[in-house]
Design a protein that fits this description.
With about 160 residues, the chain is α+β, with helices and mostly antiparallel strands. It has a single domain, classed as Nuclear Transport Factor 2, Chain: A, CATH 3.10.450.50. About 30% of the residues lie in helices and about 35% in strands. It has a 5-stranded mixed sheet. Strands 4-5 form a two-stranded antiparallel sheet. Helix 1 packs across helix 2. It is globular and about 50 Å long. The termini are far apart. The model has no long low-confidence stretch (mean pLDDT about 95). Pfam families: SnoaL.
């Protein structure tokens, strides 16, 4: 499997089927919502932009028929804005960098075909991550920083679309 934290584009091309879908991309940038290695690579780049040293430590792997289930611990430091997008691709929320570390459990499900990932979905501890990073409960100053981060992300998103 390609590593969202350290794999390069060629790794994604070698492990992701051209028609693969990431069922977890609903709040990611539009480029992540497509199919195939390019969309999965876009997800990795999006994740790395907020958590440059993101890491997934594999705790358990279970395989059954065409399914591979990985229980992992995702960890990293929040160094860049973590931006969430709406269905229309518009910036919905941005969490300003806190420079705090986090470690949370996740379970990733992969459907495989011909040795390649064709589908991915996950169960994550997003609330645990939010608490560790200080997103909840937010301080008044952090809300201001998030509003600024959202405005910057929205302006950057508009500029990219206009190119």
């Amino acid at each position: 499997m390609s590593d969202m934290g350290s794999g390069d584009r060629l790794d994604f091309d070698r492990t992701i089927h051209p028609d693969a879908i990431n069922r977890e991309a609903a709040t990611e940038p539009s480029a992540c919502r497509g199919r195939g290695p390019a969309a999965f690579w876009a997800s990795a780049q999006w994740l790395r932009s907020a958590f440059p040293q993101v890491r997934h430590e594999v705790n358990h792997v279970v395989t059954e028929s065409d399914l591979v289930v990985i229980h992992a611990t995702m960890s990293g430091t929040h160094e860049g804005p973590f931006v969430l997008y709406g269905p229309d691709g518009e910036v919905r929320q941005a969490f300003a960098p806190t420079h705090k570390r986090f470690a949370v459990d996740q379970t990733h499900w992969f459907r495989m075909a011909q040795g390649l990932v064709v589908e991915h979905w996950a169960s994550r501890d997003d609330m645990g991550m939010a608490e560790q990073l200080g997103w909840v409960p937010p301080s008044p100053m952090y809300l201001v920083r998030c509003a600024r981060a959202r405005r910057r992300a929205a302006a950057e998103s508009r500029a990219q679309r206009d190119r």
